[in-house]
C-alpha cells in the first residue's frame, strides 16, 4: 500500500494557496457555508473544508507521523486565519462567529464516515479538532477600542496565502485513494490511482 509522506516544504502542493475547483465538497458542507453571512468567514470556511478533504485523501492511509504532520500544518493555517479574523482574539463578535461556524464544520467532519478511516477496529478522524490559543499580542499603542464596530467585509486584505518556499521542491509521487464509504462492517479496499504532483510551488 502506498503511503504518502508529509513534507512541510511541499505542503502547498497539497493545500494549494489559490483554489479554483471545489467540486469534491458535498452539499451538506456547501449548504452550511452558504448560511454564513460574513464574507470573510465564508471564504475561510470554504478553504478549510477543501483542505480538510484534500488532507484526508492524501494522508489518511499514511503513517501516523505524516498524518499528524499534515494535520498540524492545517491547524496552524487555520489558527493564522483565526488570529487575523478575530484581530488576535480582541474582536468578540468575530470570535463568537468563528467558534460557532468553524467549530461546527470540525464536528461535521468528525461525524462523517466518508472522512473517517479504520485503525484496527476503530473509526478515527485523520485530523482531530482542538482549540489553539496562540494569538498576536499587540503593542499598547495599537487602538483596539472600535474593533467590534468594524464590519468585516470592509476589509480589503482578508486572506493571506500560505507561505511559498524559494527552494526547489523535489516531492515524490502521490497516490490518491479512491474514496469508499467505510462502515464498521466493511474492510478498506486498497484501490488507488496514481497522481503525480507537480514540483512547482507557484
TrEMBL record:
Q: Which domain of life is it from?
A: Eukaryota
Name of the protein in question: CYIR protein
Amino acid at each position: 500500500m502506498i503511503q504518502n509522506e508529509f513534507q512541510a516544504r511541499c505542503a502547498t502542493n497539497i493545500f494549494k494557496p489559490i483554489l479554483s475547483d471545489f467540486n469534491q465538497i458535498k452539499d451538506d458542507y456547501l449548504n452550511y457555508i452558504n448560511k454564513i453571512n460574513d464574507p470573510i468567514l465564508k471564504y475561510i470556511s470554504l478553504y478549510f473544508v477543501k483542505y480538510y478533504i484534500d488532507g484526508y485523501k492524501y494522508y489518511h492511509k499514511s503513517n501516523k507521523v505524516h498524518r499528524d504532520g499534515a494535520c498540524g500544518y492545517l491547524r496552524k493555517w487555520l489558527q493564522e486565519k483565526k488570529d487575523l479574523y478575530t484581530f488576535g482574539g480582541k474582536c468578540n463578535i468575530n470570535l463568537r462567529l468563528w467558534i460557532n461556524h468553524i467549530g461546527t464544520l470540525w464536528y461535521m467532519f468528525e461525524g462523517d464516515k466518508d472522512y473517517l478511516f479504520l485503525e484496527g477496529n476503530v473509526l478515527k478522524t485523520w485530523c482531530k479538532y482542538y482549540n489553539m490559543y496562540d494569538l498576536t499580542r499587540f503593542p499598547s499603542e495599537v487602538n483596539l477600542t472600535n474593533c467590534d464596530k468594524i464590519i468585516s467585509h470592509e476589509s480589503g486584505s482578508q486572506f493571506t496565502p500560505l507561505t511559498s518556499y524559494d527552494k526547489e521542491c523535489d516531492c515524490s509521487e502521490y497516490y490518491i485513494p479512491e474514496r469508499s464509504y467505510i462502515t464498521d462492517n466493511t474492510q478498506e479496499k486498497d484501490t488507488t490511482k496514481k497522481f503525480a504532483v507537480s514540483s512547482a510551488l507557484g
